[in-house]
Amino acid sequence: MKGVCKLCSEHKVLKESHIIPRFVGKWLKNTSITGYLRMNTQMDKRAQDTAKEYWLCED
């Protein structure tokens, strides 16, 4: 996906980036009662990972 990188402000091909750092997502899973994550958009479905968006370029 092409867009403007949030870090360098250049128009490039963007990669999917975690909104919340991955280590925080792992900690949430490890310390939760069920061992799974849930997103607020669909509370009845388990999530494997935290949310991602196309924010940063490869550079």
Describe it.
There is one protein chain. The chain has 59 residues and is α+β, with helices and mostly antiparallel strands. It has one domain (2-37, 46-57). It has one helix and five strands. The chain has one helix at 22-31, and strands at 2-4, 11-18, 37-39, 42-47, 52-57. The protein has a three-stranded antiparallel β-sheet with strand order 1-2-5, with no helix packed on it. The protein is elongated and about 40 Å long.
Question: What keyword list fits this structure?
Answer:
two-stranded antiparallel sheet, 59 residues, alpha+beta
What is the ordering of alpha helices and beta strands?
Answer: EEHEEE
Structural class: alpha+beta
For the record, give the distance between the C-alpha atoms at the N and C termini, rounded to a whole number: 15 Å
The biggest sheet amounts to: 3 strands, antiparallel
Helix residue percentage? 10-25%
Number of strand elements? 5
